[in-house]
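INFO  loader      accepted 1 record
INFO  loader      residues=313
INFO  predictor   begin
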Amino acid sequence: MLRYIFKRLIILIPVMFGVALLIFTILFFTPGDPADLMLGNMASEEQKTAWRDDHGLNDSYFAQFGTFIFNLVTKGDWGISLQTGISVTDAIMKRLPATFLLAVTTTAVAAVVGILLGVVAAKYHNTWIDMIVRVFGMAGISMPVFWFGLLLIILFAVQLRWLPVSGWNGPRYWILPSVALGLGSASVILRVTRSSILDCIRQDYVRTARAKGQTEHMIMRHHILRNALIPIITVVGGCFGAALGGAMILEQVFSINGLGRLMVNAISMRDYPLVRAAVLVLALGFSLVYLIIDLLYAYVDPRIRFEFSAKGG
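INFO  predictor   done
INFO  writer      dumping tokens
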């Protein structure tokens, strides 16, 4: 197992290098001059040229990329924000906890709602209950997150005044953003859970358990749900990664000072060092999430654990 984790961490190096190369190239060839946005139209061309020289923006593509990678690898330096002049590392670390917490609460909402409704839909397959749950799933997938978030604000914050409109200052502030982003992901988990459980229900070991007289609750818990967990774990992990990216939109709607909102502002201002760092952090988060998912496979399924042991992992 440790050898497998080490191999996956080694593979992260070329992956992160590829992401860094891709985002750097896209930003380098993106139209627009950061000097125009930072200094304004009243600045002279000499002032803009001097500003670009100070920030290394007049260097060639390869010189800029080489400097970026060298500083990142040798010093752990992400650079300085073009907009604020502060360290990119400080800006990222200040905003990252809010985005990470939003992703955690969103995934919790999505997993609980999606798995429960998926189990119910599979248990009452082809009944009116199953039909209602499937309609909910289709509605959740089809509904834009920002629009659903605005509806929740209008209903629960403006009209009923049960919850705050915006911000991220405590548990009461977490509810609306988590529900707005989580119910869409719950629809995906619901469909996967339903399909996976229906596939397991038809297996011979389930019929054997029923023939032995085990209760339906025991069969669902110990025989069906445990064997259906692999695809469920995959989609739940994917929802966590999607929540990290989807926070870009929702943080604007709910005025949350997280990494997504920081990225949107940085993109609009052509703050290249900040955008590069934020994308790399999100890419690293995605990669680590899927590493954890693979480890959970081994925890849930003894066959995968045996495969790791047989390979000397």
